[in-house]
Amino acid sequence: MSDAKKQPVGSVGWRDLTVENADDVRDFYAAVTGWTVHETSMGDYSDYTMMDANGEAVGGVCHARGPNADLPAQWLIYVVVENLEKSLDETLKRGGDVVAPPRGLMGGKMAVIKDPAGAVLALWEE
Question: Across-strand partners of 18?
Answer without folding.
Answer: 62
